[in-house]
């Protein structure tokens, strides 16, 4: 059974940093594509960034230059380094994985999802 478990969320002040991690288990090898998504209160879920097995990334314009997605295939772990955080980044952050198709944050049909970790940025 595939499991994705996020960690690293928390509360920070505007301008602060957090590093999210997502560890995958129950899957042989490394996922073709992994991504980070977020959902703010009262809003729809949106894609933040994605990364392929070979390190090719896509990232949302609103976080470009502030967020960095990376992965360690040997550890089956996905990361999201978030710097210069803003109150509008407040959301539940989810990691997700998919085995085929285009690797992009803009696709929402990832096959596996974590439970999410809360990120709260205060002004």
How would you portray this structure in words?
Helix content is 0%, strand content 50%. With 123 residues, the chain is mainly beta. The strands form 2 sheets. Strands 2, 4, 5, 6, 9, 10 and 11 form a 7-stranded mixed sheet that branches. Strands 1-3-8-7 form a 4-stranded antiparallel sheet, with no helix packed on it.
Characteristic terms for this protein:
mainly beta, 0% helix, globular
Low-pLDDT runs:
none
SSE order, one letter for each helix or strand? EEEEEEEEEEE
Oligomer: single chain
Specify the helix fraction band. Answer: under 10%
Number of helices: 0
Distance between the termini: 40 Å
Rg measurement, Å: 13 Å
**How many runs of DSSP E, i.e. beta strands?**
11
Biggest sheet features: 7 strands, mixed
User: What fraction strand?
Assistant: over 45%
Average pLDDT, rounded to a whole number, is: 95
Strand pairing plus helix content: what structural class? mainly beta
- Silhouette: globular
